[in-house]
Write a structure and sequence with these properties.
The protein is 40% helix and 16% strand. It has 199 residues and is an alpha/beta fold. The chain has a domain of 136 residues: Nucleotidyltransferase, domain 5 (2-Layer Sandwich). The radius of gyration is 17 Å and the shape is globular. The termini are far apart.
């Protein structure tokens, strides 16, 4: 069962990202602070929820959150500093925008870097264990999906509105046919993709 908080007395902010495994577009992070003992029915890791469920929960999360914010690292930054560092950078950017003071950062995953000397705890699969991280995963996913849908209007050869930049079979075929767009991450193994696509 998902827990409402990690501590009983500290103000916690949950942090998660979306888009880490994508071939194109930015990585987007979200930070969320909830009141203690909050309960939101059906909330869970965004990857386990349908699009309609995520959209329904987004409205509830935004209504009940004390504060929430987003941070982005674009494809160029991902290529420059790698996806792990870019993910952490986007998390830091979201945390900078949080107006409410907080004591503890709950981070989904196993890697993070110090943020303003605040205490942080990395939690593997945290988006299925703590409600603030789950909420952050949902908001980040929805925010990024909308960005990719917008990008699909400019880069209409890649079906971003359907694949959101992830390596689906059709996306890979589009890359083989058209090459990379300006928003594709240049550091993913394109040559390896050329050899493996049809095997």
């Amino acid at each position: 069962m998902i827990k409402s908080s990690y501590t009983t007395n500290l103000i916690e902010v949950g942090c998660d990202e979306a888009g880490r495994g994508s071939l194109a577009g930015p990585v987007v992070s979200c930070s969320v602070i909830f009141p203690k003992k909050i309960k939101i029915k059906e909330i869970n890791d965004s990857k386990l929820l349908s699009e309609n469920k995520r959209i329904m929960l987004e409205r509830i999360i935004k209504e009940k959150a004390i504060d929430y914010s987003f941070g982005i690292a674009n494809a160029e930054e991902i290529d420059k500093i790698n996806i792990l560092n870019a993910s952490i950078l986007s998390m830091h950017r979201s945390l900078y925008k949080i107006k409410e003071d907080f004591d503890l950062i709950l981070v989904d995953g196993n890697r993070f870097k110090n943020f303003n000397n605040k205490r942080h705890i990395c939690i593997v699969k945290g988006d299925s264990k703590y409600i603030s991280i789950a909420a952050a995963s949902i908001l980040a996913k929805n925010f990024r999906d909308r960005l990719m849908i917008d990008l699909s209007k400019t880069y209409d050869k890649y079906d971003f509105e359907k694949n959101k930049g992830y390596p689906t079979k059709n996306h890979k075929k589009s890359l083989m046919q058209h090459g990379q767009s300006l928003v594709h991450r240049k550091t993913f193994r394109f040559k390896e993709l050329q050899h493996k696509l049809f095997y």
